[in-house]
Amino acid sequence: MALPYDRPSPVSALKTVQMKTETTGTLHVGTSSWTFPDWRGVFYPSQTAADQQLSYYAAQFNSVEANTSFYALPAPKTLLRWLESAPEQFTFSLKAPREITHEKRLVNTEQTTAAYLDVLRSLGPAAAPGLIQFPATFTRNSDGRRLADFVDSLAAGAGEMPLSVEVRAFDLMTTSFARFLLDRRIGFVVVERTGQPDTFANWQAAVEVTSSRLPLHIRLIGNDRNPLPDDKVIRRPQEELLDKWAKRIADLLKDGTDVYCYVHNPFEGHAPESVRRLRNLVDQYLPLPEWKPTIVRPGSDEEDSGQLSLF
């Protein structure tokens, strides 16, 4: 089925092609969400209050995937609390509402999409690429034209706002779709997930064609179809996969490409330790700057962030 993935971008004037730079890229790395009951007494000290967890987390890692927005967009006071709890240069990757991608499947979602973009804008420099994830049932064959129109509209409305799209249908895990996104200054998410193909080469090929210097957005999910009994410890180590990604990340950083990488609990069993393991491996290939921010402690009367977990 012919689809318009090769048509010119309506926002091509926004595209700035940058040549290779001698500047080293920045690694933004963290976990998917920061609130898991099993992390208490393991990652978080036992006495850490719920409203202190983000500030503690942000002292360890410099980014987080915040997926509470998949269920409901956070209120302004929640966003303010997040920003007050995190140090400068810390970033949040907010997941797009499921209403857009899973429930209405891009039909009559203009208002919700605009609200999502407004939330991302309100984060200012703390905004990592927003994650727009489509289910495996959302395919090129059944939904491709609607998706292409949505991406064009999204690019026009987002401007320079960083966004990334993750697809789970195999017929969209292609170089042509990655190129379509990059040409519109929207990232193509590369996922390490059991049962899915490795699309890193597709992203690389699309980068070569478009000369894109957008960041690479990586999600290390693992075998989320085979749940572990808890999220407390490393139960299924993935040394080979971690080393594979560490080498890739180091090479990208050397080339001047920024990387946003988020690790999920199912990948090894306890995402915070997996992030530390990944950072240590990257550091062996390319020394990384230390992350030692000033710990911010918001008032204890704030409500819990409501972070949820979805894979």
What does this molecule look like?
- The protein has 10 helices and 9 strands.
- With 311 residues, it is an alpha/beta fold.
- It has one domain: TIM Barrel (Alpha-Beta Barrel).
- The strands form 3 sheets. The protein has a 4-stranded parallel sheet with strand order 1-9-8-7.
- Helix 8 links the parallel strand 8 and strand 9.
- Helix 6 crosses helix 7.
- The longest helix is centred in the middle third of the chain and has 19 residues.
- The protein is globular and about 50 Å long.
- The C terminus is likely disordered.
Number of helices: 10
CATH class: Alpha Beta
CATH superfamily membership: Protein of unknown function UPF0759
Distance between the termini: 30 Å
**Per the principal axes of the C-alpha atoms, what is the gross shape?**
globular
Tally of distinct domains? 1
Q: Could you give the order of strands across the largest sheet?
A: 1-9-8-7
Low-confidence sequence ranges: 10-21, 300-311
- In CATH, the topology is named TIM Barrel
Q: What oligomerization state is this entry in? A: single chain
SSE order, one letter for each helix or strand: EHEHEHHEHEHEEHEHEHH
Q: Just name the CATH architecture.
A: Alpha-Beta Barrel
Sheet-strand content, in percent, reads: 5-15%
Biggest sheet: strands, sense, closure?
Answer: 4 strands, parallel
How many β-strands, per DSSP? Answer: 9
Q: Which class best fits the helix and strand makeup?
A: alpha/beta
Q: Please give the radius of gyration in angstroms.
A: 19 Å
Report the helical percentage: 25-40%
Kindly report the average pLDDT value: 90
